[in-house]
């Protein structure tokens, strides 16, 4: 939901000191992460034993390292 997205955005900004945008993805348990209008990662929401946690998945292509 939007409240959850705002909390995650605020967390990312406070941890990394830059402006991130999160947008809901088509999958109900994830959001897309954008940095300066460029898609960079996906955040997935999980629940286990009553605890909620989020996993940030970011792929880096070898051609981007050049």
Q: Rough shape?
A: globular
| Annotation field: number of helices | 1
Placed side by side, the strands forming the largest sheet appear as 1-2-3-4
Radius of gyration, in Å, reads 13 Å
* Average pLDDT level: 91
Q: Give the distance, in angstroms, between the N- and C-terminal Cα atoms.
A: 37 Å
Structural class: alpha+beta
| Percent of residues in helices | 10-25%
* Residues in β-strands, percent: 35-45%
Order of helices and strands: HEEEE
| Poorly predicted sequence stretches spanning 5 or more consecutive residues | none
Strand runs, count: 4
Largest sheet: 4 strands, antiparallel
Describe the structure.
The protein is of the alpha+beta class and 66 residues long. The protein is 23% helix and 44% strand. It has one helix and four strands; from the N terminus they run H-E-E-E-E. It has one helix at 2-16, and strands at 20-24, 30-35, 38-48, 51-57. It is globular, with a radius of gyration of 13 Å. The termini are far apart.
What is the secondary structure topology, with strand pairs?
Elements (H helix, E strand, L loop, with lengths): L1 H15 L3 E5 L5 E6 L2 E11 L2 E7 L9
Antiparallel strand pairs: 1-2, 2-3, 3-4
